[in-house]
Design goal:
- The chain is an alpha+beta fold and about 425 residues long.
- It folds into 2 domains: about 80 residues, Rieske Iron-sulfur Protein (3-layer Sandwich); about 260 residues, Alpha-Beta Complex (Naphthalene 1,2-dioxygenase Alpha Subunit, Chain A, domain 1).
- It contains 10 helices and 18 strands.
- Strands 11, 12, 13, 14, 15, 16, 17 and 18 form an 8-stranded antiparallel β-sheet that branches.
- Strand 14 and strand 15 form a beta hairpin.
- Helix 2 crosses helix 9.
Length: about 425
């Protein structure tokens, strides 16, 4: 369990909250799929860390990312006209170019050029990589390097991006992304689809956990007993500050080159944006969900309801054999559980067990990072020289007498040569 003070430090991100400031200052945010932004198209409102922004694509294809409120009289720039490589407020016509400079001020008659030069616009640097717009929302004059994860070095068609906004705190989702113990229980009815690739989740018995810290975060390894005295080791990685790399399929099964990264970005203290990067290192990415043919990439697993409808659970389906009663996809199961825990769960009353080892480690890691930031130290994951491209989950069968660490290290990773991000 956590103390109330630590729980608040862990979860709160708005305003001057230490966690939010640490996240903004040290890490880039995967903000929106590039495909949603059209040249001279409608600007889109976004919220992160409790602050409101507007993002748009200019006439020449560049991305502008501003504070939402016009610096003149605070009207929403989401109402603005996107034209001529800038965004024009429809209230009094002030135009801000894609670089964040006010270039036109139609209602100033004395010295519009001087007035334009005086105005400061909340403007944020962006990068477009693998079909996603990444933004730096921190206060550093020189942003930190953009993390070079493996999926960010692949051709864009090898990566599929899904997003959805969920009404609960971001930590609820980060915990789920590294919690291997729930997969074979909560997702039991979906496991038949994946049993050729991930048989360990259907094997009876609780998992044993080992956790190893790394400069990027940590690796949590799940050890499960198999019939005949063998065991299976599968690794899950938590990469600072919100990336969960889930265990891959068995290396001798179809789809062994497919991988997934779960991301939870704080919208505010009580809502988060879930982003899935599903990718294949060798070929174009397939649909994220087995058997699914169509879904909205920008709202792929919307909440089915709140407590008044028991979060959309189908009890009739449970009577007919479905374990959880959430039929649409396994992410809907995760979403319902996270919402049911409360917007910010009261972790002072938890009773944790041995399979929660990675959860406790993740909480400690983030809390310590926030405290280090407050003390003027470099938080974990923000030091230079980390090669994020090497992070990948693996799975290996371990024979009696063999060392699971050696077997995981030797497991095929199907890695492709990394390319430099420009």
């Amino acid at each position: 369990m956590l103390s109330e003070a630590d729980n608040q430090l862990l979860c709160r991100v708005e305003g001057d909250a230490p966690m939010g400031r640490m996240l903004r200052d040290n890490f880039w945010v995967p903000a929106i799929r590039s495909a949603r932004l059209e040249p001279d198209g409608a600007p889109i409102r976004l919220k992160f860390f409790g602050d409101d922004y507007v993002v748009f694509r200019s006439t020449d294809g560049r991305v502008g990312f501003f504070d939402e409120a016009c610096p003149h009289r605070r009207a929403s720039m989401a109402l603005g006209r996107n034209e001529g490589n800038g965004l024009r407020c429809i209230f009094h016509g002030w135009k801000i170019d894609v670089s964040g400079k006010v270039v036109e001020m139609p209602n100033e008659h004395r010295d519009p050029e001087r007035m334009c030069a005086k105005v400061k616009v909340g403007h944020y640097p962006t990068r477009e990589v693998v079909g996603m717009v990444w933004v730096y929302l921190g206060a550093k004059a020189e942003p930190p390097p953009l993390q070079n994860f493996e999926f960010m070095t692949l051709p864009e068609e090898h990566v599929r991006i899904l997003t959805v906004d969920i009404p609960c705190n971001w930590i609820n989702s980060v915990e789920a992304s590294i919690d291997d113990a729930h997969v074979g229980i909560l997702h039991a009815s979906f496991m038949d689809v994946y049993k050729d690739r991930r048989p360990h989740e259907v094997v009876a018995g609780p998992p044993a956990y080992e956790v190893d810290q790394h400069p990027y975060g940590f690796q949590g390894t799940v050890l499960r007993s198999l019939p005949g005295g063998r065991s299976m080791a599968s690794s899950t990685h938590f990469a600072m500050p919100w990336f969960g790399f889930t265990s891959t399929g068995r290396p001798d099964a179809p789809g062994a080159t497919r991988r997934a990264v779960h991301v939870a970005i704080p919208i505010d203290d009580y809502n988060y944006r879930q982003v899935f990067f599903s990718y294949d290192v060798n070929s174009p990415a397939e649909n994220f969900f087995a058997g699914a043919t169509e879904y909205d990439q920008d709202n792929f697993a919307p909440p089915l309801g709140g407590p008044e409808t028991v979060w959309g659970q189908d009890r009739e389906a449970m009577k007919n054999g479905h374990f959880s009663g959430f039929l649409s996809n396994l992410t809907s199961e995760d979403t319902a559980i996270q919402m049911s825990q409360g917007a910010i769960p009261d972790r002072t009353h938890e009773v944790l067990c041995s399979s929660d080892k990675a959860i406790g480690f993740m909480r400690h890691t983030l809390i310590q990072a926030a405290r280090d930031y407050q003390a003027g130290k470099v938080p974990l994951g923000a030091a230079p020289g980390i090669d994020w491209s090497k992070i990948r989950s693996r799975l290996a069968f371990v024979e009696p007498g063999e060392n699971w660490r050696d077997k995981l290290a030797a497991a095929p990773d199907f890695r492709v040569p990394a390319v430099a991000l420009t």
